[in-house]
Amino acid sequence: MASSLPLPLNPHSPSIPPHSSTPTSSTSSSCIKCLAVSLGVGIGVSLAVAPQLAEQRSWVAQSLRDVCTQKRRADSYFWGPLASLSLPTDIARKEKTETIVEPNTGVSFPSVLDETKQLAGVGVRKTSIVGPKSIRVYAFGLYVDENSLKENFVDKYGKMSVTELKDSKEFYEDVIGNDLNLTLRLEIVYGKLSIGSVRSAFEVLIGSQLRRFNGSQNKELLQRFTSQFKDEYKLSRGTKIHFTRLPGYVLQTKIGEQEVGLIQSPLLCRSLFDLYIGDYPFDKQAKEKIGVGLASLLTQ
């Protein structure tokens, strides 16, 4: 019965005085310890999985610490509830491994990347082949460091609604142009895609963007970027490419798990991310979803 437990569940209830005597039989002592372990673990699990018992959970943990620091050789059964309190951490860790599926390709994206970056939204890059026909080249997801997002924009946009932000051209321009910690993750879905095709496509696309934002193509910068995609890197369905804007407008490129380049250039960063959430995005629906995701993270 709950009234007979030697550990009160209400942190404000009076402490139960210690027993005045201890069992004399080793068998009785063992039984009591086993019972205490079972009760302790049961209490700990119950407290751990019930968010409304946060106050009790904190009190139990502190009580157990006090007991163990007061006894030089603390009995092991005191640690049952304390060990069970680690469950919320495991649950949180599992929640971080949730995935979001890009519906056109079936590609799954982890909701959290590098422990701190949240997935804002996903989309697909298609390219036309003959007439109205097109092929799905890769799925993409845009990740943002939530702390970086709020540090940069909470003063300017924190009081605006999600609807207002997702429709704000200025908001997207600020995300694209500021030194915000972003990662663009691409996953190849077209099995016949070669690294040469990727290099050629970026040469055209980024070259056009550089002219648009800078008035000239900036051939040296373009060559530095496209030369990262060397023929030695083989692509296949499922290959992942990551573009990350690091502090100081440094664009990091990774193919698979290998870093293939670091280029410091605000212009290059802007030119790349604008392809996905700028005025003429590859996937308009994806841009809107990403806008909602960014706005939700900023205003929550």
From TrEMBL:
Single GO biological process annotation from the record: fatty acid metabolic process
**Pfam families, per database record:** Chalcone_2
Q: Which family does it belong to?
A: Belongs to the chalcone isomerase family.
- GO MF terms on file? fatty acid binding; intramolecular lyase activity
The record's annotation in SUPFAM superfamilies points to:
Chalcone isomerase
Q: Which domain of life is it from?
A: Eukaryota
Q: Which organism is it from?
A: Picea sitchensis
Task: Please give the name of this protein.
Answer: Chalcone isomerase domain-containing protein
Where do the segments described as Disordered lie? 1-24
Q: Which GO terms describe its cellular component?
A: chloroplast stroma
List all membrane-crossing ranges. Answer: none
Pro residues bias: where? 8-17
Q: Where would one find the signal peptide in this protein?
A: none
Instruction: Pinpoint the Chalcone isomerase domain residues.
Output: 117-290
